[in-house]
Protein: Alkaline D-peptidase
Amino acid sequence: MTRSLPSTAGLLITTVALAGAATAAPAASVSAADAPRHAPVQKALDQAVADGGVPGMVAEVRDRRGRWFGSAGVADTRTGRKRQPHERFRIGSATKPFTATVVLQLAAEGKLSLDDTVDKWLPGLVKGDNNDGGTITIRHLLNHTSGIFNYGNDKEEFAKLSGPAWLEHRYDTYTPERLVKIGLRNPRSFETPGDGFVYSNTGYILAGMIVEKVTGKTLADEISRRIVRPLGLTGTYLPGKETKIRGPHPRHYSTLFATEADAKVHDVTDQSASTGWAAGGMVSTVGDLHLFTGALLRGKLLPPAQQREMFTMVKTGIKLPDGTWKDTWITDTTYGTGVFSWELSCGAQVWGIGGAITGGFSFAMGTRDAKRMIVTNMNIDRYGRHDSLDTVKTVLQAEFCPSGSQTRNT
Structure:
């Protein structure tokens, strides 16, 4: 039987004026008197460490009262070093909205259109197994409706990037072209582009390649020029060939997709980011993710037309031949262009970005107006009984669901 990635693993990894709110100073710390309001979040963090197999987890809430930071566990299981607000960590697919924002800014400048086909910019690259770059548009790439197979689920590559084999291949370098070819050697997820949603890192690799073709610059440079510097992000970057994280950071841990509760945990901090690149290769901090996600939700990075495009949502699944619906990603979500919404168990809806990578889960979610937001990171990825996505959802619900209402009323 072909072993496939858990659905959560798919998360793996300008001329626009930027007004004052986008570069606002960090919110003031919440007073001690307000700390009890966040006791449910702190309890969820503590439980993640005590019962969920998480070495260390942090969460930072920002709302009209200011800023609250909570942590549990450690940044380093060997030394016992505690987690800190300024740490940098790999953010996995929270990279995607950075790539999507650059593409949408290029569209606003008239340098490309989301209706452009892949073939217009990367002629002849997407072909074979019923893939046709002449029918797949940039929009299809960005909202995961292209149908192109996710290279991370390729049987041969997954064998290299999970289990003990990962330790042997952790420093392997992948070019974007190689990642695309891996995806294209597999059957399409559905026949016609636009007829379904299946999460595909391959699509974002293609989007990153298009950015470089249009601009003549590296994607890393464009992200820095258009997003990082204007927003004043101090710990965010897209690595090149380097395998270590710059600056202060927690150790990153993984069971390498083993699902047993007692699975061996490995230190995976140092690794090649080239397997994620435009789809999941970036590094950031809780503070930077607050600034970036807040700017996205408030429309500070894009003109109105492109902002509407970013938040034009599609359901995250496909309709089967018998007419029934099949979820293909996180249940109760919709996806836009690099951003998504998630309906929590109590019925509350949150918006933002998230990502998983070998070594961690990172989410930045909030109300649609960004007046209340939380950023969280755990320095491990786990599946099975201690599923990291369930842990994230528990923390989100601790913040956004009224006390005692963790399940939806019926």
